[in-house]
Amino acid sequence: LLLGNGTNILFPDEGLKDLFIISTENLTKMFLLPDGAIYAEAGVSLAKLASFAQQNGLAGLEFASGIPGTVGGGVRMNAGAYGGELKDAVESVVFYFLPDQGLYEMMNENCKFAYRRSIFQQMNAAILSAVFRLQPGDKAEISAKMRELNERRRDKQPLDLPSAGSAFRRPENGYAAALIDEAGLKGYTVGGAQVSEKHAGFVVNTGKATSHDVYDLMMHIRKTVYEKSGTVLVPEMIILPPDYALTDNGPEVPLNRVTGGLEAELNAAAVQEKPENCRVLSISSPILTETDMM
User: Fold this and answer.
1) How many CB atoms lie within 10 A of CB 120?
2) Cα–Cα dist 55/142, whole Å
3) Residue 65: active-site member
4) Residue 143: C-alpha distances to residues 52, 136, 139, 207, 236 (Å)
5) CA distance 281 to 283
6) CA distance 98 to 93
7) Distance CA 23, CA 9 (A)
8) Sign (positive/negative) of CA torsion 96, 104, 278, 133?
9) Which of 41, 62, 85, 236 is catalytic?
10) Catalytic residue at 169?
């Protein structure tokens, strides 16, 4: 399991067996390159990255100032908010490919960025750093934009309760929160997990929610929304272990069949796709050893 901050992951209450974690908590270097681009390691928070950009008069990451994640996780899922996405700012990514212990650099155009997707979700690799190419801007205007977006976030999102961020991805035919609200599910509760009364796109912990509460609530949401609108909601949060989201759950089984291979694609362990269209920096790199991963 490759783990950054873990802000959008649902872990099982019973824990995970044979868990290997490569943490990015010590990858926190960030600086301005001579050509004006920003170099940031995978453990740098997106909030700090956006703030650093503002301090250097660079625009384009204002949307990221309130996202509770890191560069590594953000690049992997192409994090975004309020119309902005990291794909529009990333110039290149350096990653460690576990199968051959190689260090590679991949340019933006080869990262296969799409809505909440990138090539790194299909690779057994750990993102180590990224270079961000931004546009010069006025520091005061950038700061004002960041304040505006963060105020919108505080006004509309349930930041006072624990959550793993947006529960579902935005469907092609609308917004997940609107579909959930129209299905009459705002405030719906399973155990300690609740569809936020402030923003229906969030599943919050009201105090003592278990992972099973969250999972069962999400399955109920998906089933109800599908019955009412014909739209299949795809989880945005990562559900562990990988086969947990495929577990038959009584009346939800037909919905699992309707989704086809989406659950397997989103929650299965990463396949070992060999890096292509990227620059080899080194092979058999000592950056991560067997001891580091235990």
Assistant:
1) 25
2) 9
3) no
4) 11, 13, 6, 35, 29
5) 7
6) 16
7) 14
8) positive
9) 236
10) no
Helices (H), 1-45: none
Question: What tens-digit pLDDT sequence spans the chain (294 residues)?
Answer: 667 778 888 888 888 776 666 667 789 999 999 999 999 999 999 999 999 999 999 999 999 999 988 999 999 999 999 999 999 999 999 999 988 889 999 999 999 999 989 999 888 889 999 999 999 999 999 999 999 999 999 999 999 999 998 999 999 888 999 999 999 999 999 999 999 999 999 999 999 999 999 999 999 999 999 999 999 898 888 887 755 543 333 334 334 433 333 444 444 434 445 678 888 887 654 444 433 333
Q: Which residue has the tokens 């212990």?
A: 101
Structure tokens, 233? 């909601």
Spatial separation of the C-alpha atoms in residues 48 and 109, rounded to whole Å: 25
User: Locate tokens 């949307």: which residue?
Assistant: 63
Q: Spot the catalytic one: 166, 169, 196, 222.
A: 166
Catalytic member of 76, 116, 170, 222: 116
| Residue 262, both tokens | 């989406």
- Whole-angstrom CA distances from 45 to 7, 38, 59, 115, 266 are 11, 14, 17, 20, 24
pTM of the model: 0.81
Q: Which residues contact 26 (CB under 8 A, 6 or more apart)?
A: 43
For the question of residue 284 being annotated catalytic, the response is no
